[in-house]
Amino acid sequence: MALQATITSMGEDTDALFGLGGNDLLNGGTGKDTLYGGTGNDVFQFDSVSDSQPGLSRDIIKDFVGNGNLPGDRIDLSGIDANTNIAGDQAFTYIGSGAFTTAGQIRYSKDILQGNTDSNLSANFEIQLEGSPLLVASDIIV
Q1: Are the CB atoms for 54 and 118 separated by under 8 Å?
Q2: Coarse DSSP helix, strand, coil percentages of the chain, rounded to the nearest 5 percent
Q3: How far is CA 15 from the centre of its chain?
Q4: CATH 2.30.42.10, domain 5-141, yes or no
Q5: Going by DSSP bridges, is the β-strand pair 16-18/34-36 parallel, antiparallel, or unpaired?
């Protein structure tokens, strides 16, 4: 997949980012952001748990179309250390809609993708996918 545009907000504000007509990389940075990929196979990138905090501060992806269709839109969480209790940078494990049982897990229920990076078994970040699209493990870059 060749990217046609990279759209990044480095501020801490609430931003609305709009992709172009092709394969875009969108990264809202910190703050509550609304992301529109537009047509094409877009990547929505998150580099830190602070990029999309749980609750009212979470980012919203308005037009995610992944559904395991390669190519398709994808969510990139590879920049986030999945387990802050262990040295190094670990990858997440996708558990569907089940409850967290350990650090390093991501789950998707209703329209919210959540990730747990520590031992408290609660969400450390959340991303809302408007319209509750189907989300499968291959839609997520871990």
Answers
A1: no
A2: 5, 30, 65
A3: 16
A4: no
A5: parallel
pLDDT digits 0-9 by tens, 24-57: 999 989 989 999 999 999 999 999 999 999 999 9
**Structural contact between residues 52 and 58, judged by C-beta atoms closer than 8 angstroms:** yes
Q: Quick check: 141 and 73 in contact, CB under 8 A?
A: no
Q: Which two tokens stand for residue 116?
A: 């747990």
pTM: 0.91
Tokens of 131: 């319209």
- E-assigned strands of 2-111? 5-8, 16-18, 24-27, 34-36, 43-45, 59-61, 74-76, 93-94, 105-109
What the block records as the tokens of 17 is 């980012």
